[in-house]
């Protein structure tokens, strides 16, 4: 349940920065596990002659890149009281003030590095698809996967299941978006390893030499699709795209207030994972300054309580005057 009082910028920034730092510390464990599994599965794929296991190994490699880039973005986003912004100088008066402009810019680095992670994932998926297609096109002799491939895939499934439980626990404890995303990704990767195990079993049991390679192409398509989705969502956030359905809900809620004549302008955007809103409304000219101030506070409170909008910048117009 949210607090009835809408947060000011200091209240917004502090828990977000703490959340970002907490997420970054816990994601180190993900990097270590994914790195170890990549090496084990890659060696297992080589010794066990399994293309599906090789694709699963590169799926884990994409997890290393995506997690590493996300951690870099989280590190930049969580920095405060600095004299630079990613190497660019910051005005002296802003270096020691927790003002929203610079920190909101830092929050966007999380989105930028997530976009880069999506690009790398898509490239890895494309490489797996091309290799699988080339294997069929060149009529490369295919072998049944060996026992070592099955053991490597089984170890990966168990390790990722444990990591998923770990991420799930901490994401719920800290209510952190980055850890929640990591938990979902790890769960999907565990299912991918389970698919690899079943593929190896089917290939060996029924002597379907081609089946292992077909599944590797399927895993490549999955990685490519996941990377493309991440790239798309991050790109839309960076160009200030916002779901028009949600904006319509915001507009209808504000327009429903008795003293609001009309919502003239409304635009929402993301700063990292924070929703920011700008709105201009028309009110009766008889309203006093105190009533206008109260209305602005009410709108901020409603948007925070009902929609989780962190900051609502309200401009109010009457026939002759504008208020911020």
Task: From the structure above, extract its key features.
324 residues, alpha+beta, Alpha-lytic protease prodomain-like, Alpha-Beta Plaits, 4-stranded mixed beta sheet, two-stranded antiparallel sheet, 9 helices, 6 strands, elongated, monoatomic cation transmembrane transporter activity, Cation_efflux_TMD_sf, transmembrane, transport, Cation efflux protein transmembrane domain-containing protein
In brief:
This protein has 324 residues and is an alpha+beta fold.
Can you describe what's shown?
This protein is of the alpha+beta class. The chain folds into 2 domains: 9-238, Alpha-lytic protease prodomain-like, CATH 1.20.1510; 244-323, Alpha-Beta Plaits (2-Layer Sandwich), CATH 3.30.70. Helix content is 70%, strand content 10%. The protein has 9 helices and 6 strands. It has helices at 9-48, 51-77, 92-95, 100-137, 147-174, 177-206, 209-238, 244-255, 289-307; strands spanning 84-85, 88-89, 262-271, 274-282, 311-317, 322-323. The strands form 2 sheets. It has a 4-stranded mixed β-sheet. A two-stranded antiparallel ribbon has the order 1-2. A hairpin with a 2-residue loop joins strand 1 (84-85) and strand 2. It is elongated, with a radius of gyration of 25 Å.
Q: Which helices and strands occur, and which strands form pairs?
A:
Blueprint: H1 9-48, H2 51-77, E1 84-85, E2 88-89, H3 92-95, H4 100-137, H5 147-174, H6 177-206, H7 209-238, H8 244-255, E3 262-271, E4 274-282, H9 289-307, E5 311-317, E6 322-323
């Amino acid at each position: 349940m949210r607090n009835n009082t809408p947060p000011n910028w200091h209240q917004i920034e502090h828990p977000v920065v703490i959340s970002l730092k907490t997420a970054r510390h816990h994601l180190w464990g993900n990097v270590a596990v994914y790195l170890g599994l990549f090496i084990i599965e890659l060696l297992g794929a080589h010794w066990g002659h399994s293309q599906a296991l090789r694709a699963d190994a590169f799926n884990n490699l994409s997890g290393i890149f995506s997690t590493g880039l996300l951690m870099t973005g989280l590190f930049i986003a969580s920095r405060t009281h600095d004299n630079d912004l990613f190497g660019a100088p910051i005005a002296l008066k802003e270096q020691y003030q927790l003002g929203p402009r610079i920190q909101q810019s830092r929050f966007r680095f999380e989105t930028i590095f997530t976009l880069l992670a999506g690009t790398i994932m898509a490239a890895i998926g494309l490489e797996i698809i091309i290799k699988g297609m080339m294997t069929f096109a060149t009529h490369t002799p295919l072998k049944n996967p060996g026992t070592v491939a099955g053991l490597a895939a089984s170890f990966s499934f168990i390790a990722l299941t444990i990591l998923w439980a770990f991420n799930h626990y901490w994401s719920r404890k800290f209510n952190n978006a980055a850890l929640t995303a990591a938990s979902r990704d790890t769960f999907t990767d565990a299912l991918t390893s389970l698919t690899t195990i079943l593929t190896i079993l089917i290939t060996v049991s029924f002597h379907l030499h081609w089946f292992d390679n077909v599944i590797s192409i399927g895993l490549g398509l999955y990685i490519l699709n996941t990377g493309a989705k991440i790239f798309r969502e991050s790109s839309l956030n960076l160009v200030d795209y916002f779901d028009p359905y949600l904006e319509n809900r915001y507009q209808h809620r504000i327009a429903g207030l008795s003293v609001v004549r009309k919502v003239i302008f409304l635009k929402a955007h993301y700063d990292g994972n924070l929703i920011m809103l700008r709105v201009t409304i028309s009110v009766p000219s008889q309203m006093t300054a105190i009533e206008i101030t109260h209305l602005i506070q009410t709108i901020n409170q409603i948007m925070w309580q009902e929609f989780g909008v962190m900051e609502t910048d309200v401009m109010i117009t009457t026939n002759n005057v504008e208020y911020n």
